[in-house]
Amino acid sequence: MTMHAAEETFSFQAEVAQLLDLMAHSLYSNKEIFLRELISNASDAIDRLRLERYSRPDLAAAEAEEPPRICVGFDKDAGTITIADNGIGMSRAEVIEYIGTIAKSGTGEFLKALTGDQRTDAALIGQFGVGYYSAFVVADRVVMTTRRAGLAADEAVRWSSDGKGEYTLETIERLEPGTTIVLHLREGEDDLLNSHRLRTIIRTYSDHISQPIIMASEGAEPGESAEDTVNQASALWTRPKAGLGEKDYHDYYRHISNDFADPLAYLHAKVEGRYEYTLLLYIPSSAPFDLWHQQPRHGVRLHVQRVFILEDTGRLMPRYLRFVRGIIDSADLPLNVSREILQGSLAVDHIRSSAVKKVLRLLKDMAANDPGKYAVFWKQFGSVLKEGISDDYGNREDIAELLRFTSTHSPTQEPDVSLHDYVDRMKEGQDEIYYLIAPTLAAATASPHLEAFREKGIEVLLLGEAVDNWVVTGLLQEFGGKRLRSVAQGASDFGDDAEKEAAEKAAEEYAALLGRLKAVLAGQAWDVRVSSRLTSSPACIVANEAVTDLNLAHRLRGSGLPNQPILEINPDHPLIERLNRHQDDPRLTDWAHVLFNQAVLTLGARVEDPAAFVGKLNDLLVALTEATDDTGTGDS
Ligand SMILES: Nc1ncnc2c1ncn2[C@@H]1O[C@H](COP(=O)(O)OP(=O)(O)OP(=O)(O)O)[C@@H](O)[C@H]1O
C-alpha cells in the first residue's frame, strides 16, 4: 500500500485480479451485461436504503426521503457512461470489503464454474455475485464515488481502478448519499455512447427494475434538462394479470433470477382473505450451480407492500422446492421483519403452505398437459422434489403423484413411469408395487432379482438414487392403497399356487444341501434358502424381511451388503442341481464361497476378500480343465 496525500493504493486480491482479466478479455460477446449488473446493484442499494429507514428512524429524520432514482447518462466527448443511484451507498470499509480486496465467497466459485462458453459464463456473473466487475468488460478505467447514508458529506469515498491489479481510494466530499459509477470506455466502444443504444439495452435487461431508470430525453436541445423514465418502473406482480403476457413474465424472470433461459412455468396469484398476499413464482428450466449446496444463494424474494425485504431459501419455500424463484409480496408482515421473525409468523406459515400447494398444482398441470416439459423439469429437479416425500408429510400424496421412475417396462433409462402408470398396468391378481433399490441404475437393471419378474411380465420400478430409499420408506410403503414391496427383500412369495407348491417341494428336496451351505457360509450368510425369483442365475443375495430397506440401501452404499444377507439358490440351475447330486464333493466349500461371492458381485456390492475369492475360482477352473483333460476332450 502506498500513500499519496489522501489517496491510498491497494492491490486486488489475486482471485479478483484474475476475474477482472477475464471480464476484460473473455466476455466480450455479451458486453452489454455490464449495464444490467450495475443497474441491478443500484436497484438493490435503493431497496436496502428504504428498508434501513424503517429500522433506523434517525436516518429517516436526518435525510429527507428523495424519490428513488437510477440515472444513466453518457458523455460523447469524454467517452464515459455514468450510472448513479440515490441508494444506501458504501462507507470506506464497505468499499474495501465488497469491491476488490477480500475475495467474496462467490468469486472463487465463479472461477471454478466457468465453462469457456461466453454465453454461459456471462449468465453465471449474476448468479455468483460478481456483477460489479463486469464494468471492466467495456471500461479500461472505472471511477466510483459513494457516500453511505447516515455518514457525513466529508466521509464519502472515491474508488478508482484500471482493473489491472490495483485500485485507489480517496476520502472526498459528496453532497448526497448514494453511488455514482463512471465508466471510461475502452477504445472502440463508441457505439455505446448513444442514447438509443443505451435505452434498448435498458429495456431489454432492466425494464422491470421497480425504480425509475432515468435518461436525458432524446433530442433535447443543448442546455435543456428534459429527462424521461426509460423502463416500466413498476413492480410487475402488482400489475393486473390481464395486461401481462408471457413475454412480460419471462423478461421479469430473467431479471430476478439472473438466468438467461426462459422459465419452464410460472404462476401469478393475488390472494385476499384472512391474509393478503401476491405470489409470482417460477420453475426454472435448468438447475442453478448451487442446487446441492447447504445454503443456496438464491431463493424467493420477500416483499412487504412492495418493499423488498430479503431473499430467502428455506423459510418461504420448503427445502425440497428450493429451485423455485420469484416474489412473495405480503400486506400482513411488518416492514422490519427479520429472518428470525419469519420463522414464527402465522402469516408466513399460511403463505408458505398456500405457495407450496400452488407450486405442486402447477407441476401437476405441467405433467398432465405437457409431459415433454415435465420430463425436462424432472431431469433437473426430480431428485430434489423427491426429498418432499419424507419432508412434507401433509403433501406427501400430491408429491407421490409427481414422481417419475425408470422401470423394467421403460424402453430407455429415462425416468418416465409415474406410480399411476404403474398401478394402471398392474397384472391381474397383483396387489403390490414392486421396486428394486441398487447402488446405481445400471446395477438395478442387470440385477438377477428381476429374472422371475421379467419372465412373468411383472413391472418393477428401478431405484438407483441415494434419495430413493427415503422415498419408498417415507411413502409409508403405499400408493393408492397398494403396498410398495422390494424384490430384493424377504421371502419371494409371489407366483400362483402351482409355483408355490413347486417351491416348497424344491425346499424339501434341497434341505440337506441348504444345511451344508449354511454351515460353510456361517458368519457370512444369515440364511440360505431356495429361491423362486431366479430363472437364469444360480444364486442371489436378498435382505432379511425384518431389516428395512432403509438399512439395505444404507449398507449398499457402505460395505455393500445388507445387514443380514440371505443367499437364495435357483433349484433349476444346472450348477445347483449338480451340487445337490454330489453333496460329498470335497470342493463343496469352494463352490459355496464362489456362489455367495458372485451373488455379492451381481448385487453391485464388494466381495470381502477378493483375493481368496479369485483363488477359489481359479482352483475350481483348474479342477474343471483337469476333468476335461481326463475325459480326453483336452488338447493333450
Ligand atoms: N451501487 C451500489 N450501491 C451500494 N452498494 C453497492 C453498489 N454496487 C455494489 N455494491 C456493493 O458491492 C457488492 C458487490 O457487488 P456485486 O455486483 O459484485 O455482487 P452482488 O451485488 O453482491 O451480487 P448479485 O449480483 O448476485 O446481487 C454488493 O453486494 C454491494 O454490497
TrEMBL record:
It comes from Actinomadura vinacea. Keywords: ATP-binding, Chaperone, Cytoplasm, Nucleotide-binding, Stress response. Residues 555-636 are annotated as: C. Residues 30-189 form the Histidine kinase/HSP90-like ATPase domain. The keyword Kinase does not apply. The keyword Cytoplasm applies. Residues 1-339 are annotated as: A. Belongs to the heat shock protein 90 family. Molecular chaperone. Has ATPase activity. Gene3D superfamilies: 3.30.230.80, 3.40.50.11260, Heat shock protein 90, C-terminal domain, Histidine kinase-like ATPase, C-terminal domain. SMART domains: HATPase_c (SM00387). It is found in: Cytoplasm. This is Chaperone protein HtpG. Homodimer. InterPro entries: HATPase_C_sf, HATPase_dom, Heat_shock_protein_90_CS, HSP90_C, Hsp90_fam, Hsp90_N, Ribosomal_Su5_D2-typ_SF. Coiled coil: none annotated.
